[in-house]
Protein: Quinol monooxygenase YgiN
Amino acid sequence: MLTRIVRMTFQPEKVVDFLAIFRDSENKIRTMPGCRHLELWQDADASHVYCTHSHWDSAADLDNYRRSVLFGQVWPATKRLFAAPPLAFSVYPAGPDSPTTSSPPTPQ
Structure:
């Protein structure tokens, strides 16, 4: 399972617009193939900063969503509201079941 976190800093006066976009699209995103979970988090110290937290069966499922018509509607509308570039990253659980195919480099 792949976890995707996207941290977004909005123009404070545009937060209401973002929340409307998110509320309108969240259930559609949740029904995308491979999406297992989607949450919206608000920063504890900066009320205009939000993160989406989602779980995907695979990186391919996330990529398929990112190439979808839905993403093509949601993301451009969201980007117009930013006060700073977003920070996005994907992670896998670490451990013996990790999907990585190579060993980490040996320390010198």
Summary: The domain at 2-91 is CATH 3.30.70.100 (Alpha-Beta Plaits). The beta strands are 2-9, 35-42, 49-56, 87-91. The chain has three helices and four strands.
